[in-house]
Amino acid sequence: MKEINIMEVGGFKVGHAQNMEAATGCTVMLFDRVAPAGVDVRGGGPASRETPLLNPVSDAKGIHALVLSGGSAFGLDAAGGVMKYLEERDIGFDVGVTKVPLVCQSSLFDLVIGRCDVRPDQAMAYAACEAASYDAMEEGNVGAGCGCTVGKYRGVDFCMKSGIGSYAVQAGDLKVGAIVAVNALGDVYDLETGEEIAGLRTPEGGLRSTEEEMWNDVDNMHDLFTGNTTIGMVVTNAAMDKALLNKVASMAHNGYARTIRPVHTTADGDSIYAVSTGDLQGDVNIVGTLAAYVMGKAINQAVRTAKGMCGFPAAVDLKK
Hints:
By secondary structure, the chain is an alpha+beta fold. The chain has 5 helices and 18 strands. A 6-stranded mixed β-sheet has the order 1-12-13-16-18-4. The longest helix is centred in the last third of the chain and has 21 residues, at 284-304. It is globular, with a radius of gyration of 18 Å.
């Protein structure tokens, strides 16, 4: 197995657009053809669009685009810009009078940094489509990662800046990659070493464990800060239908669990999409196992490529 660039998985373009002053943005994945997709939503507070399309009993064979964005539920407006971009290019499901692009979206909550009254909209998503390319994907404080933070159990005064990251591997001819915007209530740990690399800070600026803080509060219910949600996509060149891809998305959540603690709380809307862009024969168990691995590595990459912003330090700012 070897590490590859996420874009080497093939079959899609990625574009970012963001408003740095408002600290929010969106990331668009445009697929070269209708791409079968699945999803697994584990968090208690998701904001999503067209999720029922990915149910195996739904008629849709796949999707044309996927959007990850900030803005909480307000940000779901962004998908309209992607639909406009695709319809202008005659891309979509043919309904006779026009073609309807099938666009799924998940949004994370980033309203507490920057400006809460500016969110990703149709114009921003259209700009992300125009910027989309097959070139290496920019990471960190861009697109959906622009307003991401982690370690928010004690409120924004002790959290850290995060971002969007990617990671991909190739085993034989099989390729599996992940893109993820990390906006978690919990802390982020290195997949390989188990070391905490970003999260809840101490008053002195070091790191502490959110889990331990929660255990200390067991007799004093804490009002969880709700501004969270980690959203991501697994992509593979293996040919799979929606049923198998729903299983891959489910297994990919193991990557969340290995690197984010706590995760899947009622204060998170954690979601993972799984998309097939190729024709290679692949085993679902192998793809799912690799999906969990690349997702964990992409989460680490999202934290390590982020830069301090809006007064929030990033992992690169911590003293070693």
